[in-house]
Amino acid sequence: MAKLSPSLLSADFGRLAEQIKEVETGGADLIHLDVMDGHFVPNISLGIPVIKSLRKVTKLPFDVHLMIEKPERYIEDFVNAGADIITVHQEVSPHLHRTIQNIKSYDVKAGIAINPSTPLENIKYVLNDIDMVLVMTVNPGFGGQSLIKEMKHKIIELKRMIKDKGLNVEIEVDGGVKLENVREVIDWGADVIVAGSAIFKAEDVIKQTKKFKDLINR
Ligand SMILES: O=C(CO)[C@H](O)[C@H](O)COP(=O)(O)O
Ligand SMILES: [Fe+2]
């Protein structure tokens, strides 16, 4: 069964604790935290101290998506802040294998994120070292964008690669997932669904989370 990881990027930043409780009540499996540095992506979001304070609010795993340059400099800080999964972008990690080993040395899960234009070839030789691949289905930096349709082929191909190698690697799909397309995305091969604006911009966040979960479980 696929898991749901609501992205706080579209939450009300003045009520983050409350909004986490709402998605938890609705049945969220993870909490997706988008960290942006204004360099790798043109936006700046939240960082280490915010994650650390939110750690007290819930026991749900923290799925931390680092959209920052030189992520290797901050792995220990994110572990100490309470991250359970740390995902770094392939595009900013020339020593990806070393960074993955570093993440895993803290006994947290390691993920690699790839932008829409990044080929699967770039992660082929580290697939057996990681727990998750985050496929960006929008260009990173902002919530509320539309899913890039071409990513369907990338997700299907990645699922096949993982299966052929007999690996236990999850596929997380991030960007533009809504109630209308979540079933389709799961059919392509998604194991973890990220949804930001589709959950937090809804009138009733608890009900909306439940609707996602019902569709995912169908
Ligand atoms: O990584 C991200 C943006 O870079 C976000 O996780 C993603 O965009 C979620 O927002 P939405 O569901 O609104 O597309
Ligand atoms: Fe994200």
Automatic annotation (TrEMBL):
<feature type="binding site">
    <location>
        <position position="174"/>
    </location>
    <ligand>
        <name>a divalent metal cation</name>
    </ligand>
</feature>
<feature type="active site" description="Proton donor">
    <location>
        <position position="174"/>
    </location>
</feature>
<dbReference type="InterPro" id="IPR026019">
    <property type="entry name" value="Ribul_P_3_epim"/>
</dbReference>
<comment type="similarity">
    <text>Belongs to the ribulose-phosphate 3-epimerase family.</text>
</comment>
<keyword id="KW-0464">Manganese</keyword>
<dbReference type="InterPro" id="IPR013785">
    <property type="entry name" value="Aldolase_TIM"/>
</dbReference>
<dbReference type="GO" id="GO:0046872">
    <property type="term" value="F:metal ion binding"/>
</dbReference>
<dbReference type="GO" id="GO:0019323">
    <property type="term" value="P:pentose catabolic process"/>
</dbReference>
<keyword id="KW-0119">Carbohydrate metabolism</keyword>
<comment type="function">
    <text>Catalyzes the reversible epimerization of D-ribulose 5-phosphate to D-xylulose 5-phosphate.</text>
</comment>
<feature type="binding site">
    <location>
        <position position="176"/>
    </location>
    <ligand>
        <name>substrate</name>
    </ligand>
</feature>
<feature type="binding site">
    <location>
        <position position="7"/>
    </location>
    <ligand>
        <name>substrate</name>
    </ligand>
</feature>
<feature type="binding site">
    <location>
        <begin position="174"/>
        <end position="176"/>
    </location>
    <ligand>
        <name>substrate</name>
    </ligand>
</feature>
<dbReference type="GO" id="GO:0005737">
    <property type="term" value="C:cytoplasm"/>
</dbReference>
<feature type="binding site">
    <location>
        <position position="34"/>
    </location>
    <ligand>
        <name>a divalent metal cation</name>
    </ligand>
</feature>
<keyword id="KW-0862">Zinc</keyword>
<dbReference type="GO" id="GO:0006098">
    <property type="term" value="P:pentose-phosphate shunt"/>
</dbReference>
<feature type="binding site">
    <location>
        <begin position="141"/>
        <end position="144"/>
    </location>
    <ligand>
        <name>substrate</name>
    </ligand>
</feature>
<dbReference type="Pfam" id="PF00834">
    <property type="entry name" value="Ribul_P_3_epim"/>
</dbReference>
<dbReference type="InterPro" id="IPR000056">
    <property type="entry name" value="Ribul_P_3_epim-like"/>
</dbReference>
<feature type="active site" description="Proton acceptor">
    <location>
        <position position="34"/>
    </location>
</feature>
<dbReference type="InterPro" id="IPR011060">
    <property type="entry name" value="RibuloseP-bd_barrel"/>
</dbReference>
<keyword id="KW-0413">Isomerase</keyword>
<keyword id="KW-0479">Metal-binding</keyword>
<feature type="binding site">
    <location>
        <position position="32"/>
    </location>
    <ligand>
        <name>a divalent metal cation</name>
    </ligand>
</feature>
<keyword id="KW-0170">Cobalt</keyword>
<protein>
    <recommendedName>
        <fullName>Ribulose-phosphate 3-epimerase</fullName>
        <ecNumber>5.1.3.1</ecNumber>
    </recommendedName>
</protein>
<dbReference type="GO" id="GO:0004750">
    <property type="term" value="F:D-ribulose-phosphate 3-epimerase activity"/>
</dbReference>
<feature type="binding site">
    <location>
        <position position="65"/>
    </location>
    <ligand>
        <name>a divalent metal cation</name>
    </ligand>
</feature>
<comment type="pathway">
    <text>Carbohydrate degradation.</text>
</comment>
<feature type="binding site">
    <location>
        <begin position="196"/>
        <end position="197"/>
    </location>
    <ligand>
        <name>substrate</name>
    </ligand>
</feature>
<feature type="binding site">
    <location>
        <position position="65"/>
    </location>
    <ligand>
        <name>substrate</name>
    </ligand>
</feature>
